[in-house]
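Technical note accompanying the year-one report. For the benefit of new consortium partners, we illustrate the data format agreed upon in the data management plan: each record pairs a sequence with a structure-token string. No post-processing was applied to the example shown here.
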Amino acid sequence: MSVSNNFLRLGVLSALVGMSLGVWMGANQDFVLRPVHAHINLLGFASMMLFGLFYRSFPAAAEGWLPKLHFGLSVLGFLISMPMLALILLGKPVLMPLLPVSEVMLVGSMLLFVIIVFMATMKKNEAAAA
């Protein structure tokens, strides 16, 4: 499993979904789902692509269980939070408790990414100093 490739693939698929939602909203002049559109583009496209590019730039950082956990939490949190947010905005708060759970997953995935980035960049700086 290439964490980098998986993040990159999810990123471009998210861009397609986010752009399609934007086109649909514009065509229907119905902008209730604006926050979902923005979150899909930011969390789905921008964040996932940046994660993938980081792992491509630091291949050693993509090894082990931590990056896999990062990917799993990111994907699960994203795939739960987007439909939940859409349902809330549409006035159908079905399964509402899943939204805060997914948000914790997303923040947890970012915390893991912070740890991974610091570990990878500290190793690179130490190797360059030697």
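Partners are asked to follow this layout when depositing records. The two ends are 32 Å apart (CA to CA).
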